[in-house]
Design goal:
Length: 212
């Protein structure tokens, strides 16, 4: 497409993102997007072959906002920067970010986000044949934590509140009742995320053969 059409495509994506953030992904119909940008639903198919393709591009749009880490930084800092950048994007787009978990990402933006992770893992000394697996584990923690956090899955404090715990007999929830009020304590999500990252980075360092 020419420049004007590319600009129009960006306008459509911006409208789709606004609708999704205001009303959720279910509100992001082709009709609603078309009304936002002054196009009929059929006219939108001149820019995106299907709604699935539009969703792919929407994922790419969100991923564009995950900053690339400093290539000169230590591999540990690069891993941490990638993770923190993804979590920040989830907080900017809490109602759209979950698309990353339920769609295969096919656009170049995904490769641009993953490539620094591959590089950091290789520099840590992870064998080449294990780099992709490590990236998947690392990204699954980051994306899963971020989506759970912004979607409300974690809720306030923790999942095992006293009210939920007491609905069932201790014989059915022995571990919950044994932990008791510990599960009711407030959680510092920033600290928990950083602690999880630190554990993963330590595991990478333990397996790798790169610089200590």
């Amino acid at each position: 497409m020419g420049k004007i059409n590319q600009e129009r495509r960006e306008e459509i994506l911006s409208a789709a993102l606004r609708i999704a953030e205001n009303g959720g992904l279910a509100a992001m119909s082709m009709r609603a997007i078309g009304a936002e940008v002054g196009l009929t639903p059929m006219a939108l198919y001149g820019y995106f072959a299907s709604k699935d393709e539009l969703l792919d591009w929407l994922v790419g749009r969100v991923l564009q906002e995950v900053p690339r880490p400093d290539p000169e930084a230590d591999w540990r800092e690069r891993l941490l920067a990638c993770a923190r950048g993804a979590r920040a994007a989830a907080h900017r787009y809490p109602r759209t970010f979950s698309v990353l978990l339920n769609r295969p990402v096919v656009l170049p933006e995904a490769m641009r986000v993953v490539d620094p992770l591959y590089g950091a893992l290789m520099e840590a000394g992870i064998p080449h044949e294990r780099v992709a697996g490590w990236e998947r584990m690392f990204s699954t923690f980051v994306l899963g934590f971020a989506v759970s956090e912004v979607s409300g899955r974690f809720g306030e404090g923790n999942l095992g509140t006293r009210e939920r715990r007491e609905r069932l007999d201790p014989r059915e929830l022995p571990a919950h009742h044994r932990l008791g009020e510990v599960l009711d304590l407030p959680v510092d999500w920033d600290a928990e995320f950083e602690e999880g990252l630190a554990r993963l980075v330590a595991m990478v360092g333990a397996e790798g053969t790169g610089p200590a």
